């Protein structure tokens, strides 16, 4: 096992014990809210693109979820909302991709 010299251990301990001065929690919340808002608008675009390809009843729950995510982004947990927005956009992209496939040939 390799041993670290005492000076390195001391430097490592000092680095780990000092709080990050550059991390202002309010600024980080604002930045995450901006990221979340960008994700919401991208998910809205994905839902709009998927709408013509959706089956009956597919879009209503997704639209309701997007509305909930907007509220969560503004007043709840923007990090979780941003992650859930990605999942929603992915589901919308699957619907859109399904609509781009050629119909099965009938014999």
| Number of discrete domains | 1
Rg, nearest Å = 23 Å
Kindly, what is the distance between the CA atoms of the first and last residues, rounded to a whole number of angstroms? 71 Å
Overall form: elongated
* Strand content bin: under 5%
- What is the mean predicted local confidence, pLDDT? 82
Helical content, roughly? over 70%
Strand/helix succession: HHHH
| Helix vs. strand class | mainly alpha
- The strand count comes to 0
Main sheet properties: none
The tally of helices reads 4
Task: Give the uncertain stretches in residue-range form.
Answer: none
Keywords: Signal
Signal peptide: 1-22
What tags apply to this protein structure?
107 residues, mainly alpha, 4 helices, elongated, signal
Structure described in brief:
The protein has helices spanning 6-17, 25-50, 59-75, 78-100. It has 107 residues and is an all-alpha fold.
Mind explaining what this structure looks like?
It is a single chain. By secondary structure, the chain is mainly alpha-helical. The chain has one domain (25-99). The chain contains four helices and no strands. It has helices at 6-17, 25-50, 59-75, 78-100. Helix 2 (25-50) packs antiparallel against helix 3 (59-75), helix 2 runs parallel beside helix 4 (78-100) and helix 3 (59-75) packs antiparallel against helix 4 (78-100). The relative contact order is 0.13.
